[in-house]
Design goal:
heterodimer; A: alpha+beta; five-stranded mixed β-sheet; 41% helix; B: Cytochrome Bc1 Complex, Chain A, domain 1; Cytochrome Bc1 Complex, Chain A, domain 1
Chain lengths: 443, 438
């Protein structure tokens, strides 16, 4: 057992001693427990994160991780179908779950004195789910309608799906989390059961409890409810198919009559945060801010939206948290009368100019200050903190990595940024996509 | 000049949680009222302003003016250009957002305690001395017009615009606050100045401050921030009664899943039966997985990912609405089930058990809402706008508990009018025709 006080070493005068209060444990069966204390309100967030997501799915059953997440709200040996959520609601709480490429998580937000009940129910459904063919059948209708709502009804979402499929040549990050429709239609009870039996186990889970709790009391409850569940000895080593060296630029045009405004996107493969090696990722956070963070102060915004009025919207984005490869993306919506070719050329000029020019020290200082302040603001959102730890720990990072991250962000230099930019901006490992309503606009 | 400081120590008592929220009512030396909660633990402050009116004050032929004006507040003020203003805000690591919704303009600010004076000065400049430069007007106008074009191809927005137009006609509620491509295209700098003068007035202002500050110092801060705004503006529009006939309006749109928005008249927020209506609505369609509509349309039949109903008591009209999306092939069945659940509840009401479950949830969930400085500030301006007092935070759960099964079922019978439900369906729905036919 270790007790760690996250020292964020925030250097602002007024915020010296601010940090979240974190304690970690590991149960005998391998389950990790993270407790984040915040006693400002008598509320607790109980989250169970499984180290399995859509990118861990076997081929041919895309969407099964997410489908199982839905089915987890059906019955168990002790709970009737739907009873889990009913009990949470009857206790004045709310519950939900989410599936990503790298993790699946279940959470409840409830009065702090109801924590034990949440643990009792959540630990029960780790091993005792009871699925019926009828429920699987009707829930498959639900996920297909979810896909309709999120993806089929949205030209932008369909375009994003195509981009990722083109960007990843071998990794399952190229397959949508919700699944390809034709494979979703075939998902059955056995697919869900197999996935559940293999991956839902204490040695593949992380418990995060955040809020008005005492760490030793949380540990005692965790041992009582989760500690008695045997570890899964068949749990596979988490090694997923990786990208080969990418050797050719890809360009795609997505045409959909529902597109109201043509736009372009470019996504590059990029490094992610890795255990003990987060510097490149930290530098990419700055790179995204400098190039396309705010339309008013970023390089793209200033050049395309202010100086030349080539675009009505520009953006650069980078999300650092992935188990495998991250992506670095640009988006440009051209102004009326500007073609996509012209907009893309203007975008590439900005990127070239950035690579050749100096980085303004005042901009660096401004971004540093904002990142520092964001740590202060983050303390006001205990669920956000819980999420931060849950995502990181399911993506191979450690508590120490999470706590080192703010300092690493503060120490990024201009040289770090230029170096990682030179590495990432390689068109052979990128997809450029145009989204248009008809071929006429694709010029 | 007098400073009034009323300190109310309020405790929310619920069956499952207690939250202590100490709301202090403050009147500044200059006469601006505000609710303040001191939360010194984290060194930052959340400030929330609401101006009632907003886009409903658009002048004839100028639809979209208030929305565009609000978009321009961050685009240059005093002697600063848009870029200078934002660069300064970023240096201070503060965020300020301006937003127009149907009846209001919201201003949300978040800043570190140590930067309080600088951020308040910047916000004052944006609110009191916006420049409305032609260059910024043209640039932001292009963004708004792009959004309008995009809305015209969004099934959800098509549904709400169609419903609103049919329900409210020429009243401001009958059209989108963004305006049309034509109306926005014609807006001038003078229109921006008019909209600004009419909307940002102290008589319709509500203020909440939460965080690392004290009630004693807030008054001076608010006078600096808001003291130079005009006292009053033009009158608000008349109320309008919802009286659309029941039926179905199909809007043809080539997309695989149909989206339906439906509803009928609702209940005013100050109606003494409002909490009974909230409970009825929760059991029907606002209770997440627990609601009857979710159970019947999603859980049992797998016809949708989500269906919900909601009470919408606006300032000038009140409606009860619902939303569901289902494949073109199954939307007709989803609508049929919805109608029959609506009718079943109007006729038979809810059960004693459903009433208890709804009450337990509502009273338990209420204190959990107060979980962050910005959230508390938003709740407090919302309460002020609908005329509640700080004591409501303590009493609200009693209002919920006081609803009897008789109340709930009387209200269910009055509120739910299955024959008056009008469905606007956007998509290629199979087996649905316009009714009454034109």
């Amino acid at each position: 057992m270790t007790r760690l006080f996250a020292a964020l070493a925030i250097m602002m005068s007024a915020v010296a001693a601010q940090a979240e209060d974190v304690t970690t444990y590991t149960l005998d069966n391998g389950m990790e427990v993270v407790v984040i204390e915040d006693n400002r309100a008598p509320v607790v967030v109980h989250m169970l994160w499984y180290k399995v997501g859509s990118a861990d799915e076997p081929e041919g059953v895309s969407g099964i991780a997410h489908f199982l997440e839905h089915l987890m709200f059906k019955g168990t040996n002790e709970l009737a179908s739907g009873e889990f959520s009913s009990v949470v609601a009857a206790n004045g709480g709310s519950d939900n779950a989410f599936t990503s490429y790298d993790y699946t998580a279940y959470f409840q937000r409830v009065a702090a004195d109801r924590l034990e009940l949440m643990m009792q129910m959540e630990s029960n459904r780790m091993n005792n789910l009871v699925l019926t063919p009828e429920e699987v059948e009707s829930e498959r209708g639900v996920i297909l309608e979810e896909r309709n709502q999120r993806t089929e009804n949205s030209a932008n979402a369909l375009a994003r799906e195509q981009f990722r499929a083109a960007l990843f040549q071998n990794h399952r990050y190229g397959v949508p989390i919700i699944g390809w429709k034709h494979e979703m239609e075939q998902l059955d009870l056995q697919d869900a059961q197999d996935f559940y039996d293999l991956y839902y186990a204490p040695n593949n889970a992380i418990l995060i409890v955040a809020g008005d709790v005492q760490p030793d009391e949380v540990l005692a409850l965790a041992e009582q409810y989760y500690g008695v569940i045997p570890a899964e000895d068949q749990l596979p080593v988490r090694e997923r198919p990786q990208e080969p060296p990418q050797r050719a630029e890809r360009r795609i045009t997505y045409v959909d009559a529902r597109v109201s405004q043509p736009y372009l996107v470019r996504s590059y493969l990029a490094p992610e945060r890795d255990p003990g090696a987060q510097t490149e990722a930290a530098a990419l956070v700055y790179l995204a801010e400098l190039l396309g963070g705010s339309p008013f102060t970023s390089a793209l915004g200033q050049a395309l939206q202010f100086d030349t009025q080539t675009a009505i919207y520009t953006n650069a984005s980078y999300s650092a948290s992935w188990l495998d490869d991250a992506t670095f993306s640009f988006a440009v919506v051209p102004a009326d009368g500007v073609t996509l070719s012209e907009a893309e050329e203007a975008m590439d000029e900005v990127i070239s100019a950035f690579m050749e020019g100096e980085i303004d020290p005042a901009r660096m200082e401004s971004i540093r200050t904002q990142l520092r302040a964001s740590e202060v603001y983050a303390l006001d959102n205990v669920q956000g903190l819980a999420q931060r730890y849950g995502a990181a720990l399911t993506q191979s990072l450690t508590v120490a990595d999470v706590q080192a991250w703010p300092d690493i962000l503060q120490s990024v230099t201009e040289e770090d940024i230029k170096a990682v930019a030179a590495k990432v901006f390689n068109r052979d490992q990128a997809v450029t996509g145009w989204v248009v309503s008809d071929q006429e606009e694709a010029r | 000049m007098r400073r009034i400081l009323i300190a109310l120590c309020l405790t929310i008592v619920a069956t499952t949680a207690r939250a202590d929220i100490d709301i202090k009512e403050v009147t500044s030396p200059g006469g601006i009222n505000a609710w303040v909660v001191e939360e010194p633990e984290i060194p930052f402050v959340a400030l929330e302003l609401r101006f009632q009116g907003g886009p409903v004050l658009d002048l004839p032929g100028k639809r979209g003016a208030t929305n565009l004006m609000v978009g321009l507040l961050e685009e240059g003020s005093g002697d600063m250009s848009a870029q200078e203003f934002q660069a300064k805000l970023e240096e201070l690591a503060a965020s300020i957002s301006f937003r127009a919704t149907d009846d209001t303009i919201s201003v949300s600010a978040r800043f570190l305690t140590e930067n309080k004076e600088d951020v308040v000065a910047l916000l004052r400049q944006a609110l009191v001395e916006p420049r409305f430069d032609q260059e910024a007007l043209d640039r932001v106008r292009a963004q708004v017009i792009s959004g309008i074009a995009s809305d015209a191809k969004s099934p959800n927005t098509i549904a709400s615009d169609t419903f609103s137009a049919a329900a409210y006609g020429d009243h401001p509620y009958g059209s989108a606050i963004e305006g049309t491509i034509e109306s926005v295209g014609n807006l001038t700098q003078d229109d921006m100045r008019d909209a600004h003068r009419n909307a940002l007035v102290r008589d319709r202002l509500y203020v909440a401050v939460v965080g690392d500050t004290t009630a004693e110092t807030v008054g001076g801060l608010l006078d600096d921030l808001l003291g130079d705004l005009p006292q009053d503006g033009p009158p608000l529009p008349e109320n309008i009664t919802y009286d659309m006939a029941g039926g179905i309006t199909v809007v043809d749109f080539d997309t695989p899943q149909s989206v339906a928005l439906f509803g009928h008249g609702g209940m005013k927020r100050d109606d003494e039966d409002f909490f009974a209506a909230v409970i009825v609505n929760r059991v029907l369609g606002a209770g997440g997985f627990e609601s009857r509509l979710m159970t019947e349309v999603r859980e049992k039949r797998g016809l949708t990912y989500g269906i919900s109903s909601f009470l919408v008591p606006r300032f000038h009209a009140e409606v009860m609405l619902g939303r569901v999306a289902s494949s073109n092939e199954t939307i007709a069945e989803a609508i049929e089930v919805t109608r029959s659940e609506w009718a079943r509840m109007a006729e038979d009401g809810i059960t004693a058990e459903e009433l208890e479950v709804a009450k337990t949830y509502m009273t338990g969930e209420y204190p959990l809402r107060f979980d962050g400085n910005a959230e508390i500030a938003k709740i407090m301006v919302g309460m002020q706008m609908i005329g509640l007092t700080p004591e409501y935070v303590t009493n609200r759960n009693d209002f919920v508990e006081a609803v009897t099964l008789e109340d709930a079922n009387r209200v269910a019978a009055e509120l739910l009018q299955p024959e008056n439900l009008h469905f606007v369906v956007v998509g290629k729905p199979v087996g649905l025709e316009n009714t009454p036919s034109e």
